[in-house]
Amino acid sequence: xxxxxxxxxxxxxxxxxxxxxxxxxxxxxxxxxxxxxxxxxxxxxxxxxxxxxxxxxxxxxxxxxxxxxxxxxxxxxxxxxxxxxxxxxxxxxxxxxxxxxxxxxxxxxxxxxxxxxxxxxxxxxxxxxxxxxxxxxxxxxxxxxxxxxxxxxxxxxxxxxxxxxxxxxxxxxxxxxxxxxxxxxxxxxxxxxxxxxxxxxxxxxxxxxxxxxxxxxxxxxxxxxxxxxxxxxxxxxxxxxxxxxxxxxxxxxxxxxxxxxxxxxxxxxxxxxxxxxxxxxxxxxxxxxxxxxxxxxxxxxxxxxxxxxxxxxxxxxxxxxxxxxxxxxxxxxxxxxxxxxxxxxxxxxxxxxxxxxxxxxxxxxxxxxxxxxxxxxxxxxxxxxxxxxxxxxxxxxxxxxxxxxxxxxxxxxxxxxxxxxxxxxxxxxxxxxxxxxxxxxxxxxxxxxxxxxxxxxxxxxxxxxxxxxxxxxxxxxxxxxxxxxx
Length: 486
Ligand code: HEM
Description:
CATH 1.10.630.10; alpha+beta; globular
């Protein structure tokens, strides 16, 4: 053995001995994960962390040690413990520092409970369903959905149109009347394109794991290593200018932050930019994966059932009277959660932490990834039978099922549904996102049938990791819209 190999072996042994999980060797998982996080990091850097962890769950079950100090869980009970215990669950890890805006902590990047609760109190009411369903927001969303529907009929419009729709809807909610119109205005479209499908994954991970190496390599990264930094000058200046504008509509987040919060101008801009970014790729991708799935020949029956429901209802039928639309949206978010990746938290100090019957030492990084919670079958410790089958009917009462049986089954599925996270730190934009998705699907499937475009290649619609969200691996989703007879 060369001295280098001996040193390496000693270093690995030391890591193993120092691992806070040493006494928990019963944790399932690959042997190398007890010794090193290098394999996990390799998958992070190659944008395959989510599928890698999912493959470990398929092999080892709902509890897997993925690094010396990190354990992944996939059961509904574990998700409840990590994200809901004592209201908002365990504290976030420093991994969220990657998302600081203008070097400020926003609600999303606060780590501890009390800091988070303070910030959330300032703005939560703008995201309540009652505010979203009010005239200003709903009318604006419907109007943008109509514009989208008209563009589908014109054909030939390509380039992240769903993300443009999501961008215009979220800026409506944040800034109206200073919102964007990227569906039809090329200048606003440029801002959207700068923010969406971010390609700075490797650069930002390096800055997180090794700030020194990141600084040393800085000048070579873009030219030689092709590691792009995240640069969004158009979006920055749009938000900085808009956040300073007076007279935002009362339903907007900006109005709330100007009128009833102690935040200064930069913090208002940072919070707004964070919500803007959080509302583009997520809703855009969720719609994109769902429309793609509904367009596939294997889903023809589901598309037709959706069209039948929407076309037989009047245009202003409330969403709660469109059960199939709801089922299709839930199933899309279950199969293709727009944030599929681990949401890391620290096992808390001051108490014994037991998750899925395993005793977890304080300071261990624990997480669930929505993809695995939603796509692990009951035989592997998950919730959903036939988890890889797109089947909206699972969200509806089946023939021969009593109402009480259905309600119990439904409660079980909702416990294992994690597309919007869970607990007090779950997605604040959930009602806005659902309203956007439903308005757009109603517009599309009342007027059109959708088919996959022949130019799409196998593998292009696989989910590829960004920092926390995902995007289609081919970075495009081409669908044909054919007008239905009136
Ligand atoms: C289908 C669309 C969406 C999905 C799947 C989604 C998913 C999520 C998830 C999983 C989280 C939890 C993240 C964590 O624990 O680290 C989250 C948090 C958050 N989301 Fe969404 N989101 C969507 C749309 C939106 C929209 C439209 C907005 C804003 C306008 C938004 C704003 C936020 C914010 C501000 C947080 C942080 C909440 C907190 O820390 O209290 N999201 N989202």
